[in-house]
Amino acid sequence: MSELLSPNTLEAVFALFGLVAVGAAVLVVTTRHLVHAALWLVVALGAVAGCFLLMSAEFVAWMQVLIYLGAVVVIVLFGFMLTRAPIGPSDDLTTQNRWAALLVAFSASAALIVLLVGGFAGTTLDLSDPTPTDAAMIGGSIFRYWVLPFEALSVLLLAALIGAIAISRLRSREV
Amino acid sequence: MHALYPLILSALLFGIGIYGVLARRNAILVLMSVELMLNAANIALVAFDVMLKDAAHAGQSLTVFVITIAAAEIGLGLAIVLLIFRQRATIAVDAMHDLGEHTPQRLTEGTHP
Amino acid sequence: MTGLWLVAGPLVASVLGLAVGGLGRRWVGTVAVLGASAALLSAGALATQQPWSEPVVSDGLRGNWVVLPFASVVDGLAITVALMVASVALLVQIYSTAYMRDEPRYGTYAAFISLFTAAMLAVVVAGDLLLLVIGWEVMGLCSYVLIGQNWQEPAARAAAVKAFLVTKAGDVGFIIGIIVLIATTGSLLLTDAVAAAAGDATTASVVTLLLLMGVVGKSAQFPLHAWLPDAMAGPSPVSALIHAATMVAAGIYVVARTYPMWEAAPVTLSVMAVIACLTMVGAALAALTQADLKRVLAWSTVSQLAYMLAALAVGSEQAAIFHLVSHAFFKALLFLAAGAVIHAVGSTVMSDMGGLRRAMPVTSATMALALLSLAGVPVLAGFFSKESVLSAAEHAAQGEAVVGAWAGWAVLVTAYATVAVTAAYTTRLWLRTFAGRYRGSGQPHEAPAAMRWPLVVLAVPTVAFGFTGLAAQWFPTWSVPSATMSVLPEALRPQPTATAVSLVLIAVGALLVTRIWRARPTGDPVRLDAPAAAFARSGFGWDAVYAFVAVRPFLASTAATAAVDERLIGRGVTGVGVLANDAGVGVQHAHRGYLQRSLTVSLTVVVLGLVVVLVAVAT
Predict the structure, then answer these.
(1) Most C CBs within 10 Å: which of B14, B16, B91, B107, as the mutation test of the C interface?
(2) If you placed Cys at C450, which of C98, C246, C268, C334 could pair as Cys (CB 3.0 to 4.6 Å)?
């Protein structure tokens, strides 16, 4: 336990990124400005990408940046635009359910933390290997061991694509 | 690095995501909170991958898959949100209760036999 | 069981009468008259056995655990009263065949009159306390049914219920008294129980005070007197039989029958004297202010019953019984004659009558005789019986009775006052009904034969009965109760001073009314619209007291009970349904389709599951 209280450099930086991520996430779920929420999501996801980097998961980190920050957040902003999100603050972004939600969220986090602390209090991650896990390694692993899920995933992407087009197609009478 | 750092971060992000899913009114904000939860899962997966160092890199591979699925999901989800917005001019989740049942009439004093 | 043969005839006639009711009036009338005749014949047969010298007491049937209350006592008192009851009942049945000719439900009427006769005779010959109570209660029931004979009139319905409830209020005390008597003396036989109770002053006082409640109720004395004038809503033969001659006199009879017990309780006798004095003069004043013919007679009955009660209070049950029998004859005659008048004129109020002596000579003459007897004019029966009461009061005033001398003086003074008022109202009644000119709009005619002959028959004892008291071995011996066999019966002769005072008072009352009437023959000698007269006419406002004491609290309690039942219990029952429904509605809220609500519930369950697993693993 005393190792936690005297972190080395890596842990300190990781803690910093973690705080940024948590802080930005809190702002995402509590802010009164709709568009600001999307921007704070960018910060949060970016901090998560930084965490990935610190854990030597290079490929995953850049995938995170590309897809989440690049595509998902953009599509969210497009969504705000097409649903005429108000620019300024709005008062009605959080429902009556907030207290129940707070309770559930708090108890879920607490239960998970207890579980994790109980299970992994003495474990350390060995990051002494200077070689990060890059695209070649992950690619080799996927196409060697995870081919079937990969194919299924491509079918899923196809279905999502077709589905999105089918749903959002303007019917002739709605023009 | 101590394993608890990424793991506790994951638990906290997950809780925050739950709060956002349950408490936010705008459907797109709910989808964003779901993204937060997925990210929490991703952090945990990567942390375990580094902890266990297996040959198949299961953790990081699955992380890639989760990211993919999350992207597909939010694309489709936003298409649905747009359709709803087109039909009802609102995307507040508490305005959509078509699957619910109508509240039955409460008995008043005069209706007993 | 010998005495119970008296009861058998009318009882069978009552049951048979209900059976042959559909066969027509002739059958009904025949059965009724035969039943009453059977009673009269058996009474006569029993009289020939000279029960006054040797009373016939028979035991009831008793097993180990079952008691059949059939013991009977046939002594002089019982036979005398039984003869009176049977003869009046027979005459009433004969009268009813004509009076009820055009009335519906004659069959049930005659059957209930027969049942009533049976019940009264059961009370008369009862040697068993249970038989006494049974007869007493059946009489009350028959009175209720017969008053309500014309139940299509709301006045008749109300009067029947009022009579029943008021007499029942007194009967509560009566039954409790009988129970106490049985409990303290351990005997159901009347003679034994009375003898045992007479030996102990406290028992006697308690029992007699309770029995007095029943007597006051049945005999319509203050404070339970208000039912009798209203009971005039029943047919006149019913009034004649029940409310003049028999049922109202049953209380007096029971006191006379159990007299040794009353002599041992001077407290009760004092209470009785006070009640009698108040009732005597109050009822007479009320009779003076009535506009309705039958109501005058009803109040008059209340007043005369007070005389009998007063006689009992001052120690002479002989005088009381003497007045009972004499009053029965002339009052029955008065009611039957009133029935004939009402039948002929078609109205009951005296302002529609007048000058009827030419149109109805027999009725007029017999009624005049009865009214003279009622007023106490010599030498009619009423004179002798009233004088015997006054003599008894004089004896008590001189301290010769069990009750204090003050009671004797009170009774004496009140009785004299009542004599004057009685003379006044009887004169007023005759003048308004039979003298002057006819004021109504009908065609008055003499009554038919079946109604006329009972009047004539009853006129005989009205005139002659009083003479039977003059010798000690006549009426006083004939009517001696077996309980007091050791006391020598005395002759019931009027005293000179009392007679003189009475005659003066009668003259004063009668002449005063006649003078006022002569000044205005078409009007009423009494100013009915004066507030004092109106107050007296309503029975001195006593109905308001009933309403305050009994009716309003009872109605309030029924309203409260109904409210508790509806609001508390009813709502409790429906509340179960409402509760179930509300629970369902509450649960329904989870199905309203709100996404976040459902998710919250699901996640709560998952978290709870996780917590449970953690706890399980930790322990």
Answers:
(1) B107
(2) C98
